[in-house]
Amino acid sequence: MKNNFKYNAFTDDSFFDPFDELKRINLFDDSFFENSFHDNLKIFFKRMFPNCHSFEAKKEAEKAILVNGKNDLSTYLERDFQSISAEDFYLVIDQLLDFNLGLEIDFGSGKQFLIDSGQQVLSAVKIDSTNLADFLFNALILRSANGLSLIDNLVSDGFLIESFANKIPKPLFFAGKSLAVFQKKDLLHERVYIDTRIDTDQDRKNDLLLLTISRPKKEVADFKVPVILTANPYFYGTNDMQEDVHSPEGDLSIKDDFNFQIGSSSETEKQLPALKKQEVIEEESFKRSSKTGASTFPLNDYFLARGFAVAYYGGLGTRGSDGLRSSGGPDETTACCAAIEYLSGHRLAFTDKAASNSIRAAWSNGSVAMTGRSYLGTLATACATRNPLGLKTIISESAISSWYDYYRENGLVVAPGGFQGEDADVLALDTFSRWFDGSQFFKIKSIFEKSLSEMKKAEDRQTGNYNEFWDQRNYLNQAEKIKIDCLYVHGLNDWNVKPINVFNILAKLSKHSGQSVNVILHQGQHISPHDIRSFDYLDICNAWLTHELFGLENSIQKTLPKVIVEDNIDPEIWHGQSDWTQTERKSEFNLARLAGEKLASYKDNLTEIYHNHYSNYENYEKDFYSAKEIFDNSLLKINLPTIADSTINGRIQLNLRIKTNSRTGLLTAALVEMNAGKHSSKVTKIVLNRNFKINFEDHAIPLRDFYSKKTDEHLITNGHINLQNIQGPNIVNQVYENQFLDLKLLLQPTIYRLTASSKIVLFIFASDMQYTLHPQKIQEYTVDLKESKIILPIL
């Protein structure tokens, strides 16, 4: 039977001694070497049914598994043998992994099934006493039908309870990863208040920050615990910001001359004296809270069962805390770093908002990681630029590295995908949950409204220039200060936090030595890939944090590829490559030769077309890139030559000579694959009947994966630029009517595999309805194609 799915594993388990790992989980002791082969094999298989609590139940479970044409597992184990075939062994393991014999696995093809699905199996055809431990270890690390390893599923079913007679070592590691040995009843929850030593709400008092912590109780975990912190501004709810978004309607402004030096703004907030230290109370006398907050992060839930403490905070201006929101300002980084210093044992916190008693995180081992997606992951990068005491690593998903690259692009106001009209002030309002506390609303309303007014002015939607406001929110300026290991995750089709954000931080950090910086690139949009079947994301994160926070050597930084990327044609194939930001090979094409003409013109009447014919961006964009006749005079379409068996790797460069009949203008360029046919979907779907438990919770999470989808056109990448900013977003040049300008536009970075059937088209036009402002004035543009070219970075 044909196998129609693939697993991709990037964690390397060859680093470990198989018997030592089997001994670690108390599956065997040194008597393994005295037992017969048959006895050891029976011990192993008898332990594979931990949720069967009687001899009879285990017997029935064994009978449900077929080994060969004559025997079920129960009958098979009654024979006395000194060796077995690897095929018999792997057929049993397949069924223990919950794959279906006859539906997914052909009889007699148990080993080949695993090979075809991408799993790493041992090559020997016979198993005996000399290699039995190797095969048993290999079986336990294989991926089950629900995406988790066999050992993870066994532990979830109670395997370790039988192994250790309810005295399970905590923490417990297997193959360099932490096992889920903690249950809900083993945890306690507490709320503390961090003195940020800044005063953002101008009440002449230090802003106190609410921090919620879930961690193992001391009586069940007699060890110092590492901490995972997630800074989540959405933690306590959001405001309805729909009525407060900015209208995108309006023409571009003629800008005054402007020149701002990038990196010239001050980074940190002025530090105030610390609040007076009160009596430091003992950990055991601190009153606990059962409340942990409004929402959690799935990756953290996974680690909460594995011996890690998990902490959340909403941040300045969120419910339960003091201060104001600033959408990525230096004050948010300062406050977050204060929380890290408490969690790592380097500063005190208070037990209540009145600051009546102090407390120390005496339970912490001093090692903190940050995780999170989007704004959450953004603050992880922000904190890493400050190197607070105790921060050892970050796992940052879909994160912003420069807020200018989120809300602006090359001198233009450019919205994040799906949020036309949003800006920094709108986000600050959205996340200002502090005034959900009734006592806070009137107290803080006027000062917050004043801060929003100041933010609207400073963000400067009028010009779109890069200025001091954006420079303070550009973490790339301080990237050289990041000294910790970093794992970044991003979607190549994420048009919310666009790929330039992860590309730029990777380019900065790749210049440093002495740290591991890795990136995982999937074909999705703005998602977290913790539930994706086709690669071992949870295992990667487990090995990463177990090494970074527990200090266990597991070779993850040595063996993990610098770049892991999901294939754009086959979504179940993931590639490893050494670099993304530097590509030496270039393919260069003159646009006149491609188009067959020297000059080409188009007009920007796209706002008029959108308002007259469309009610949503999705339908408009589909028709636009399908090149419907209605757009014939509104864009240039240039076919690129076939570049078979190559991969676009990095940023496409467009050198263009262009003029317009106005003092203002903008350019959008997009690379589109037409008649794309089979292609990786941008979204995932649930894998039928496959669920997994991310931790000790009773409910199961559906397993998901990307899938192949037939599509008429696929947007590979795009880019936007204001013609008044061709020297940079921080510099204004004047545009004069009907005078040619020479510009260089770098499109959003991508990795995109091309085949002989790939039909790639370059689109050149002006306003982009989903992203740029919507100019009302109809404007003419002319491109000198003879003096224009496109440069593709090719891998």
Main structural class: alpha+beta
- Radius of gyration (CA) equals 29 Å
Please report the number of helical segments.
22
Major sheet attributes: 10 strands, mixed
**Percent in helix:** 10-25%
Q: Separation of termini?
A: 36 Å
How many domains? The number is 3
Keywords: Aminopeptidase, Hydrolase, Protease, Serine protease
Catalytic activity: Hydrolyzes Xaa-Pro-|- bonds to release unblocked, N-terminal dipeptides from substrates including Ala-Pro-|-p-nitroanilide and (sequentially) Tyr-Pro-|-Phe-Pro-|-Gly-Pro-|-Ile
Protein name: Xaa-Pro dipeptidyl-peptidase
Subunit structure: Homodimer.
Topology of helices and strands:
Layout: H1 18-24, H2 37-46, H3 55-63, H4 73-76, E1 84-85, H5 86-96, H6 110-116, E2 126-127, H7 132-141, H8 150-156, H9 159-164, E3 173-174, E4 177-178, E5 187-195, E6 208-216, E7 225-231, H10 298-304, E8 309-313, H11 330-343, E9 349-350, E10 358-359, E11 364-373, H12 375-384, E12 391-397, H13 404-407, E13 408-409, E14 412-413, H14 424-430, H15 438-459, H16 468-471, E15 485-491, H17 500-509, E16 517-522, H18 537-550, H19 556-559, E17 563-566, E18 574-577, E19 586-590, H20 591-595, E20 599-604, H21 606-613, H22 617-625, E21 636-639, E22 646-650, E23 653-660, E24 666-692, E25 701-722, E26 741-746, E27 750-754, E28 759-765, E29 779-784, E30 789-793
Parallel strand pairs: 7-8, 7-11, 11-12, 12-15, 15-16, 16-17
Antiparallel strand pairs: 1-2, 3-4, 5-6, 6-8, 9-10, 13-14, 17-18, 19-30, 20-29, 21-28, 22-27, 23-26, 23-29, 23-30, 24-25, 24-28
